[in-house]
Design a protein that fits this description.
The complex is a heterodimer of chains A (about 200) and B (about 210). Chain A has helices at about 5-15, 40-45, and strands at about 25-35, 50-60, 65-85, 90-110, 120-140, 145-165, 170-180, 180-185, 190, 195-205. Chain A is mostly beta strands and about 200 residues long. The chains are: A mainly beta (about 200), B alpha/beta (about 210).
Chain lengths: ~200, ~210
């Protein structure tokens, strides 16, 4: 027996549940909206409608799945021309554009709250922990100050899976999540956001 | 059905990614420009009454001097004269010992680096030009912060009033413009006006 198989069987035994589903690997692809909060909202007040996320989940049993999630969210705001006092005492008149892209890479666990045959609404909770690739540019006019970092990230999630038909493993997925994204650059201390996702979930094998 | 879902999902991803906002593509030429002004905070500009402006423009290309004079340069000089006069300063020929001397330079560079005025300033703007042949220039260290990667315009105000006593022609104000279209004739007046508008302390008390 290979080591990986041994580990898998051990996990299954520990959970004490039986796998009844036909497919173990599910894919979930969503369009996502990001709403900055707290300190991040002071920096970019605009909601981002440019994003997506995708996850692959391996079902350990009917209720518990583990997997990985990635995605992309683009935050952007252009501020009208104003005069800013620089640290060296100079005055700078500029149109400031703040641009941030985030790419999370998370290990996830998901727990389905209601399962069973004929269940048309399947709420679930999830947690993702991992890293967040941050690409941050602040433009004064056309001149950019770039800061790219890989930082920790965590993402608790509450979602609802709606099968396309009775007992189907494919369907529509809607979820809300809070993205903890610590970050530190100048006066920006975090990139925390509320996230809303809408997409599709379907079995791979 | 499964294939349809995959196609729809891929389309959603493509649309979301394709809609990433590129800051540079969302800037007009006017929005691309930045105006930087710096001053000697110890100077009270009300103590100065007269000024003179050099009748040519220095072109500094990768720290090499090139001498040119175009219609745009003439317009920059005219716009600066106008702004100074609107703020109460009196234009005089440089032979009449002006309190302030003004020079205009175009700075071009194709690399990231520090612009060091002291390397060329004495050569081009000889203190003799202002009638102080025994003096040298003094520039505060703030000039070292510039990293120029393209054409920029620099306007310098020099304290000629105190030059005889200090034996230095000290820089007391600098205006710097960077960005797209700064050497377009139609942009000259508004750019010079922007520099002066963000420097309300530039007023004389004749």
């Amino acid at each position: 027996m290979k080591r990986s198989q041994f580990l898998l069987y051990t996990i299954l035994l520990l959970t004490g549940m039986h796998i009844q589903a036909q497919h173990r690997v599910l894919m979930n692809i969503n369009y996502s909206v990001g709403v900055p909060t707290g300190n991040f909202r002071e920096y970019i007040g605009s909601t981002s409608f440019r994003g997506w996320n995708a996850s692959i989940t391996y079902r350990l049993n009917e209720q518990i799945g583990i997997g990985a999630t990635t995605g992309f969210q683009d935050f952007y705001e252009k501020i009208d021309r104003a005069v800013y006092k620089d640290a060296d005492g100079s005055d700078i008149s500029a149109v400031v554009t703040n641009s941030i892209q985030t790419i999370p890479l998370l290990a996830t666990v998901q727990y389905t709250l209601l399962t069973g045959q004929g269940q048309t609404l399947q709420p679930y909770i999830g947690l993702g922990v991992g890293a967040n690739l941050i690409m941050h540019s602040q433009f004064l006019g056309q001149f950019a100050d770039d800061d790219n970092k890989l930082k920790l990230a965590a993402r608790p999630e509450l979602g609802l899976f709606i099968p396309l038909k009775k007992d189907s493993e494919a369907g529509v997925n809607i979820a809300g999540a809070f993205n903890f994204m610590p970050y530190n650059h100048n006066n920006l201390k975090n990139l925390n956001t509320w996230g809303i996702s809408l997409g599709a979930k379907f079995p791979l094998r | 059905m499964k294939r349809k879902i995959v196609v729809v999902a891929c389309a959603v991803i493509f649309m979301a990614t394709a809609c990433t906002k590129d800051p540079l593509k969302n800037l007009s030429d006017e929005e691309s420009r930045i105006y930087i002004t710096q001053r000697d905070s110890t100077v009270n500009f009300r103590a100065f009454n007269t000024f003179s402006i050099a009748d040519s423009v220095a072109y500094i290309n990768n720290n090499q001097l090139v001498t040119r004079f175009t219609a745009v340069d003439s317009q920059f000089i005219g716009a600066i004269k106008s702004q100074m006069q609107q703020r109460g300063f009196v234009l005089v020929p440089r032979s009449q010992n002006p309190d302030i001397g003004i020079t205009v330079s175009r700075v071009y560079s194709t690399y990231q680096g520090i612009v060091d005025y002291s390397n060329y300033y004495d050569d081009y703007w000889d203190p003799f030009y202002w009638g102080y042949s025994g003096s040298s220039y003094f520039f505060p260290s703030y000039y070292g912060v510039y990293q120029v990667t393209e054409g920029a315009l620099s306007i310098d105000m020099l304290n000629l009033k105190d030059a005889p006593a200090t034996n230095q022609i000290r820089s007391i104000w600098n205006g710097f413009i960077r960005g797209s279209g700064i050497f377009n004739v139609q942009n000259v007046n508004s750019q010079v006006e922007a520099l002066f508008n963000q420097s309300p302390y530039l007023t004389s008390n004749p």
